[in-house]
Write a structure and sequence with these properties.
Number of strands: 6
Shape: globular
Helix content: 25-40%
Oligomer: single chain
Largest sheet: 6 strands, mixed
CATH architecture: 2-Layer Sandwich
CATH topology: Heat Shock Protein 90
Number of helices: 6
Order of helices and strands: HEEHHEEHEEHH
Low-confidence stretches: 64-68
């Protein structure tokens, strides 16, 4: 992957597979401290302690369709290569939190990429799941939630309708700080 937003897409899809009904994604950047903190939090099925210990091993996966899982190991590696850190917390039946901190002044820091298209894609491909996206850059904060979009649209219009999907992506691009 050439940008972090694609890795966020992969990790968020793990949340979808884990049965999450709410996925919270944040990209918080402090340019003065040269820090970027990415987090993905869900209320999915969660993982037991043994799975959490092994989940960053690229040859460990709970999937039956392939024998490797690269999303979390890659996120961990890219954060640590910049001198940053990686954290994963999970509880069975409660969900999972993944947090990666990047030092953006490191030559090894990959670009965030098109995070707005990533969020839009997640919303469009998973219209029955709620998403909350928080974008912070220095003192500017933007929060997008599918709950608010559903409230405005009403029950009869799906989030994956082409006009709605186009609106969501444009709204994110106009208002996000990244």
């Amino acid at each position: 992957m050439h940008e972090l937003s694609l890795n966020i897409l992969d990790v968020a899809q793990n949340s979808v597979s884990a049965g999450a009904k709410l996925i919270e994604i944040s990209a918080i950047e402090d340019t003065k401290r040269a820090l970027l903190v990415l987090s993905i939090k869900d209320n999915g099925c969660g993982m037991d302690e043994d799975t959490v210990r092994n989940v960053c091993d690229p040859f460990f996966t709970t999937r039956t369709t392939r024998k490797v899982g690269l999303g979390l190991p890659f996120l961990k590696q890219t954060a640590e290569q910049t001198g940053g850190s990686f954290l994963i917390e999970s509880q069975v039946g409660k969900g999972t939190l993944v947090r990666a901190e990047y030092h953006t002044d490191s030559i090894d820091c990959m670009p965030l990429g098109d995070i707005c298209s990533t969020i839009s894609c997640l919303v469009t491909l998973n219209p029955d799941i709620d998403f909350k996206f928080t974008s912070v850059k220095d003192d500017k904060e933007f929060i997008f939630t599918t709950m608010e979009v559903r409230e405005i649209l009403g029950e009869d219009i799906a989030l994956n309708e082409p006009a709605v999907a186009a609106f969501v992506e444009e709204y994110l691009k106009e208002n996000s700080n990244h």
